[in-house]
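Project standup — Tuesday

K.O.: blocked on the structure for the chain from last sprint. Re-posting the sequence here as requested.
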Amino acid sequence: MTVLRETWIVFHRAMRMSLRNPMWSILMLSQPLMYLFLFGPLLKPITAQISQGHTTNAYQVFIPGLIVQLGMFGAMFVGFGLIAEYRAGVIEADRVTPASRIALMAGRVLRDVVVLVVQSVLLLLAALPLGLRAPWGGVLLSLVIVALLGATFASLSYSVALITKSEDALAPLLNGIAMPLLLLSGILLPMQIGPKWLQRLSDISPLKHVVNGVRALFRGDITSSASLWGLFWVVLLTIIGLAVGARTFRKESA
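H.V.: unblocked you, prediction finished:
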């Protein structure tokens, strides 16, 4: 109970900071919205090709990729905020408190998850007038996956930020990782429509299976192999991400 209380205290402080300065959250949502309004209409003429016979609605293919992208990149760069806190002496002050090191991380990650889920809901609402149709059960499970992805990438981002302690080192590292993940996960377009060599290369990315799983959920195929594999990979990634983040917070805040 003590850890939960300390997590809530850290979460409450982090959430108040986000509400006082919501510009970062707005900027992170603006990119998926631009993809939605400027790139989405281009998919309608090739709906039959990208749907692979599953659906006639291009947005059932495109929107799942966008919310996964939001879960990934919305949390991948939160480490910059932690570096700013480190430079301001906040992390040093945390070290002298008896608070659990797990709570110091979990409270921040929980804030990031809440922000990402709210952003995902807003993105889904914006897509409804454009023609998005999906079963509610699949959409809710997809939001759970986004929350788990957010927890994974936020934990890893905080971990790398604590190790590097420099924006100059963190920025090129994250940008170098982000581009291959974006291109090989099939977020913008399904990898099935690409050449065989690119499909084989993308198979090594767990995020491709997560994206395919969310697309299956949006079709209503909750018990399909694609959705189950997506859930498996996102749970595994979450366990790894939280474990790495917790270990780093213990070590760096000792």
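K.O.: great, moving the ticket to review. The radius of gyration is 19 Å. The chain has a mean pLDDT of 84.
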